[in-house]
């Protein structure tokens, strides 16, 4: 047995002192081919410093061997020593047999630093040099997948398939295609590929995307089954709970949906969106106390989330808690840009608390956005009627009836005002 083989056996047995001794002997006595293989094995096992020492020893003996430099650069990147990695890569010239590999390593380096433009340049240069090299096609597909350029990613994944690869570097290509199509909104194509993923590659992410895609296609039973089974197998996969709750809600299974949302909150107790979703589910069950609890928590977790704030405001309006609604929304009117729904909701509360002047200001602030909204116009007519503003009521009422000509009650009101 060679010293390299002894070292690897000792490492697997946890005999670290003996492994250190064998390592020193291997560096001194094993042949260079064995040492290179030892370096690869050590790197694969995560012994980066030892692998680095092997490659440095070999580089002293073979200073023209650029593959050693690319290996050393890879180790430097793994250890966060990017300047050191760049130094190694800069020594690999375009005429070197290792230049293609150096481009891929450089792309990896720049990707870790989020310098995506340089990453793309390196990968495209590699592609020009070796357009049929699977490693390059895979690297390009993964890069474009990472930055969300899904059409580009699809192109390179298909090139891999054309070259006979259904998986590469322990990544299922059908799964990647399914994810790309799903992210670009092409759900039918996405589901076709996601269903082709081999069992050994059906990760929680793939299963979640499958369920989410089925949900997007309206295949509610299938989505419910997929997501339920995912949660059974991986109950810490937090994203599955709101998706499953949505599938159940769409089937009007509100009690089950609430139970799933509550289980999800036990896993992810700081998810304001899930609290808001739970509140929406509870609205179908008529439990105002629980609904308020969830909306209050959602708002506390993310007070700047306007969607949640307006959901909470709508609840307060429904409960006729106008003081709380005014306290919630009034500070928002001091911002540079205010959603017109804020003004509308405030106007309702101010009108009900008989603060008519402020209600009028807020109705007018909301009016441009809701000029053709029958519900808004009808409420505005009610405000003008309550405050005796006949000169504003009539044109608003006529415009409302242009939009809703069959509203007999409002037709009678118009006739009554026009009579006098």
TrEMBL record:
Entry keywords, A to Z: Repeat, TPR repeat
Keyword flag Repeat: yes
Alphabetical list of InterPro entries matching this protein: CellSynth/LPSAsmb/PSIAsmb (IPR051012), TPR-like_helical_dom_sf (IPR011990), TPR_rpt (IPR019734)
Pfam families with a match to the protein in the record: TPR_16
Ranges occupied by TPR repeats: 134-167
Keyword Disulfide bond part of the UniProt annotation: no
Descriptive protein name: Tetratricopeptide repeat protein
Organism: Limosilactobacillus oris F0423
């Amino acid at each position: 047995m060679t010293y390299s083989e002894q070292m690897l056996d000792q490492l697997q047995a946890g005999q670290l002192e003996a492994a250190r001794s064998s390592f020193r002997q291997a560096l001194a006595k094993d042949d260079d081919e064995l040492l290179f293989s030892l370096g690869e094995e050590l790197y694969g096992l995560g012994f980066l410093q030892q692998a680095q020492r092997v490659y440095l020893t070999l580089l002293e003996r073979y200073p023209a061997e650029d593959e050693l430099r690319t290996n050393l650069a890879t180790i430097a990147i793994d250890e966060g020593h990017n300047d050191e990695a760049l130094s190694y890569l800069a020594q690999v010239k375009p005429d070197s047999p290792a230049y293609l590999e150096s481009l891929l390593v450089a792309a990896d380096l720049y990707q870790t630093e989020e310098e995506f433009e340089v990453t793309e340049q390196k990968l495209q240069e590699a592609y020009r040099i070796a357009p049929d090299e699977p490693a390059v096609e895979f690297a390009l597909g993964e890069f474009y997948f990472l930055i969300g350029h899904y059409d580009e990613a699809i192109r390179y994944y298909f090139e891999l398939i054309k070259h006979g690869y259904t998986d590469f570097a322990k990544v299922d290509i059908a799964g990647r295609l399914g994810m790309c199509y799903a992210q670009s909104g092409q759900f039918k194509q996405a589901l076709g590929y996601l269903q082709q993923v081999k069992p050994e590659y059906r990760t929680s992410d793939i299963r979640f995307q499958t369920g989410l895609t089925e949900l997007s296609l309206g295949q509610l039973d299938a989505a419910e089954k997929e997501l339920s089974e995912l949660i059974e197998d991986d109950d810490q996969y937090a994203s599955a709970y709101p998706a499953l709750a949505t599938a159940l809600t769409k089937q009007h299974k509100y009690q089950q949906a609430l139970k799933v949302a509550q289980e999800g909150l036990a896993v992810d107790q700081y998810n304001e969106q899930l609290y808001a979703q739970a509140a929406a589910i509870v609205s179908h069950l008529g439990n105002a106390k629980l609904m308020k609890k969830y909306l209050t928590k959602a708002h506390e977790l993310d007070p700047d989330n306007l969607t949640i704030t307006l959901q909470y405001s709508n609840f307060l309006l429904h409960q006729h808690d106008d003081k709380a609604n005014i306290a919630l929304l009034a500070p928002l009117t001091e911002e540079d840009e205010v959603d017109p729904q804020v003004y509308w909701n405030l106007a309702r509360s101010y009108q009900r608390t008989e603060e008519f002047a402020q209600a009028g200001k807020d109705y007018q602030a909301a009016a441009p956005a809701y000029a053709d909204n029958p519900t808004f116009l009808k409420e505005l007519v009610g405000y003008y009627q309550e405050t005796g503003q006949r000169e504003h009521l009539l044109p608003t009422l006529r415009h409302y009836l242009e939009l809703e000509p069959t509203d007999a009650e409002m037709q009678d009101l118009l006739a009554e005002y026009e009579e006098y």
